[in-house]
Amino acid sequence: MFSKVATRSAKGLFTDSKANFSLLKKRIQELIPQRQAELKEIKEKYGNKQIGTITVEQVIGGMRGMKGLFWDLSALDANEGIRFRGHSIPEASHKLQKVHHGHEPLPEAFLWLLLTGDIPKEHEFKDISAEILEHSELPADVEQFVKNLPTEMHPMTQLSISLLRLQTTSKFQKAYSEGIHKSKYWSPTYDDVISLIAKIPRLAALIYRNKYKDGKFINPDKHLDWAGNYSHMLGYERFEIKEAIRGYLSIHSDHEGGNVSAHTTHLVGSALADPFLSYSAGVNGLAGPLHGLANQEVLRWLLDLKKELGDDISEAKVKEFAYSTLSSGKVIPGYGHAVLRDTDPRFMHLRQFAQRYIKDDPLVDLTGTVFKVVPPILKELGKVKNPYPNVDAHSGVILYHYGLREFDYYTVIFAVSRALGAASSLVWSRALGLPIERPGSIDANWIRNKFKDA
């Protein structure tokens, strides 16, 4: 079922053989005409309609609030939070497959949902799981390349470089160089995306073991699921931490298209760069402190708080520390969000995980106390538009609890997760024939001249 899905025709182009497609690839091929027709209808009916107005402040201020991207894997509502193809986190968690005795949705099922909009049936879930496993082994030269990377190099730099090293395996790049018709771009793109998603846990685990565990590598366990095997290769075998990794990778998989990593992946991919080049660029964006380091900053703040308070984590003491933080001109990390205006449902998912599995951990308990104390303070002071916690207010604490305390590595776990959404979006970008992204730019003189008589 997972043999080569493209063969050379007499004209040197690629001809897809549906009989050799996996169930997920077949399903996408079935959906493409429908989605193309829907997009065509939208353009014909609404192509000249205005979505909204753009202010100078938005142009200068990071395009906040501007609607300028087409992205249908997930949608982010300011009050409700993220929906994956229409499904909230509680809904997806309830409907998607889990391991035996587990509560966390499996990322393989999330991948099917993101790419098709469907909850996978059991045989479909087994098929995509098998397909990922089939493509999970790294070429020997790539594995050795990763093992030889300097251990003093930041793990996100290592991951970006490792993805670029995998680019030599790109089927899209090969097909494009051989003249594949643009209507078929999606097929080798899909192959690359599955290969990237299948291999990124191994890349990330090699980086972790090489940098932090003296190069003592752990072989993959092909009997485990994608996230469970990642946890195993990192060296964390307890059922609870495997569940934590499963949940983390699922709920971080996508967060609409405007965030830095997703937008960067889309932007680079719009130039027909293959998924390895595109997602490596997205990883570089995720490495930026304003995008991927938030949960580390939360954890440091909580550890400082705990160090100062000792065993006294009363609400009154937490209030005092929070006021002190704010009066010094700093922010309380993990509270507020560029889009959300209510508690992040991803935070609540992790909170429920902690309540289910983690008992008598002062840091986890402190996270709950901060959740009670900080929003009313921020409301009172009017410091942020959203005084409620985002996902970063809890994610690092759970990793820390289970002994994964190499803070610089946390962003790598985020990158493994975000590949599910950001890389997968490239399949539909090519299937729908989305063009190269090329917005215009303006300078200060343009603004002055535009409004000089206003």
Description:
The chain is mainly alpha-helical and 454 residues long. It has 22 helices and 5 strands. A 3-stranded antiparallel β-sheet has the order 3-4-5. β1 and β2 form a beta hairpin. α10 crosses α11 and α11 runs antiparallel to α17. The protein is globular, with a radius of gyration of 23 Å. It starts with 5 loop residues before the first strand and ends with a helix.
What's the quick description here?
The protein is mostly helical and 454 residues long.
Evaluate the radius of gyration.
23 Å
Mean pLDDT: 92
Percent helix = 55-70%
Q: Reading side by side through the largest sheet, how are the strands ordered?
A: 3-4-5
Q: Report the major sheet.
A: 3 strands, antiparallel
Q: Counting H and I runs of at least 4 residues, what is the number of helices?
A: 22
Question: What fraction strand?
Answer: under 5%
N-to-C terminal Cα separation, in Å? 65 Å
Low-confidence stretches: 1-17
Broad shape? globular
